[in-house]
Amino acid sequence: MRLIIDTDTAGDDTYSLLLAMKTPGSTLEAVTVCVGNVPFDQQVENALATIEAAGFSGKIPVYCGARRPMVKPWEASTMHGNDGMSGANLPIARQRPETMHAVDAIIEKVMAEPGEIDILAQAPLTNIALAVMKEPRIAKAVRHLWIMGGTDNSVGNITPCAEYNFFIDPEAAKIVFEAGFNITLSTWTLTMRSSLFEADQLDEIFAMKTPLSEFYRKVSATPRQTAEARYGRPISTHPDSLTCAMALNSDLIEIARDAVVRIETAGEITRGFSAVHPPVLGNRWPEFKVNARVVEKASNTGFFQMMKRALA
């Protein structure tokens, strides 16, 4: 698989990059950075440091994209610490970002070889929305768009109604879901159902004592503390890396359904909510058609084994 990852690099975003770099049969064509978890320039450094930690320095270009959401002010995530890496203090990478804007890089790479490249969008969808606004043909030229975001009519991780990526830029999410991409949606609902590593799994990773398992241990420290305080047990959540794993190995998907996904942009309380409807909405909304496959359950065991192989 040939993959572009659009990321707001912090915490689990980095493990997704590791999976894409270290899984046989996967080629990470580029990393594009979008507004999200932590200050933008820190996200860029986190992406570069992850690429270097994996041994791919200078082999995967990193492009800087949108530094703010389309409409509302940016809000940082508190999940990953101030630097997005649990204060891991990784050395500054030798590789530097490219000069081309991420939106232009996405368009150029996709349109050069239509139908050949998948995009994994694991950040707010600002870069993807801007790309399809500038070049609408990319919606059909992208082979598949894998989106981590939203909830499946369920509780979010930043408000009771919204997951972080969609909450930060719901206007961008609305544009993307109405643009005609071939979409698979991996939600926060799925994250809590299928991506969690429990204490015994975490111990198994920590016992590996490889450079990348140590990278995982250091970078996951703050999110693990936050998750334990929130959910009452030692766990680690992996929304982005589970999405990447499913993109690389679709056999991990156990239950999925076609749906109409609509994004709330105006609600005072529900802003960023993703309404996931059955395919037939009836006479009331005949204009709405199926626009995504929504994953309901994935193999945690298979995902865990993929992660261990990437960290070996």
Q: List SSEs in N-to-C order.
A: EHEHEHEHHEHHEHHHHHEEEH
CATH topology: Inosine-uridine Nucleoside N-ribohydrolase, Chain A
> Helix coverage percent of residues?
25-40%
Under CATH, the homologous superfamily reads Ribonucleoside hydrolase-like
List the uncertain runs. Answer: none
CATH class: Alpha Beta
Structurally, the number of domains stands at 1
Identify the strand order in the major beta sheet: 3-2-1-4-5-6-9-7-8
Please give the number of β-strands. Answer: 9
Nutshell version of this structure?
By secondary structure, the protein is α/β, with parallel strands linked by helices.
Give your account of this protein's structure:
- By secondary structure, this protein is of the alpha/beta class.
- The chain has a single domain, classed as Alpha-Beta Complex (Inosine-uridine Nucleoside N-ribohydrolase, Chain A), CATH 3.90.245.10.
- Helices cover 38% and strands 16% of the residues.
- It contains 13 helices and nine strands.
- It has helices at 12-22, 40-53, 102-112, 126-134, 138-141, 164-168, 170-177, 188-195, 199-206, 211-219, 221-231, 239-248, 300-311; strands at residues 2-7, 27-33, 62-64, 118-121, 144-148, 183-186, 253-263, 274-277, 292-298.
- Strands 3-2-1-4-5-6-9-7-8 form a nine-stranded mixed sheet, with helices on both faces.
- Helix 1 links the parallel strand 1 and strand 2 (27-33).
- Helix 1 runs parallel beside helix 2 and helix 4 packs across helix 7.
- The model has no long low-confidence stretch (mean pLDDT 95).
